[in-house]
């Protein structure tokens, strides 16, 4: 079984993906990490992010070994990831890695922006996670502070809105809800409430109780 979770920045889809995978005993891929890994290599090398050819070259040399690097979580890397992920050729290079991951047994949960629309259009269950921008900014700020980073909530909100705009309005695989995805608004849910709601969606779709 493949579960596709998409949604905007800081919507909580990563945590949901991880928790759903643990619940079902599936493998989990936070696909944002892929774009962040490519972006970090470019930033570390002092590359010009507007140079698409360099971004494509970095994507071809993707090293999954750095996926666990905590530096990938920073706002700067996330912002750079949003820029380079808009390049169609960068996305193309990264498609097969994601599809291979999804295809391996016993099942997989992938979260990102285009999983239900482009990477796994035949996913068994698709969930589109949203939350109010103010709520997302609050959560992101608290997370950053917990990591010991200095975070200004108004600035985080501005960054989230800018990123949403870029991710939704790019021509290559823009962030959008697949027609057969179930919407999950977790603005008023805590993590446990969100996980319960997501499991209910998976169970309802699997049982055929919910036609999406
Ligand atoms: O989910 P995230 O914040 O880690 O993602 C970082 C950036 O990567 C995001 O702003 C857009 C890009 N991204 C993408 O284009 N497609 C995905 N499937 C996942 C992330």
- Please tell me how large the radius of gyration is: 16 Å
The CATH architecture is 3-Layer(aba) Sandwich
Amino- and carboxy-terminal Cα gap = 16 Å
* CATH topology (level 3) name: Rossmann fold
Bound molecules: 2'-deoxycytidine-5'-monophosphate
Protein model, in words:
- The chain has helices at 13-24, 32-44, 52-60, 75-84, 88-103, 115-119, 133-146, 153-169, 191-206; strands spanning 2-6, 27-30, 108-112, 125-130, 182-185.
- The protein has 212 residues and is of the alpha/beta class.
- It has a single domain (2-209), classed as P-loop containing nucleotide triphosphate hydrolases (Rossmann fold, 3-Layer(aba) Sandwich), CATH 3.40.50.300.
- The protein has a 5-stranded parallel beta sheet with strand order 2-3-1-4-5, with helices on both faces.
- Helix 3 (52-60) packs parallel to helix 5 and helix 4 packs parallel to helix 8.
- The longest helix is centred in the C-terminal third of the chain and has 17 residues, at 153-169.
- The radius of gyration is 16 Å and the shape is globular.
- The model has no long low-confidence stretch (mean pLDDT 95).
- 2'-deoxycytidine-5'-monophosphate is lined by residues 9, 31-32, 35-36, 78, 81-82, 85, 112-114, 163, 167.
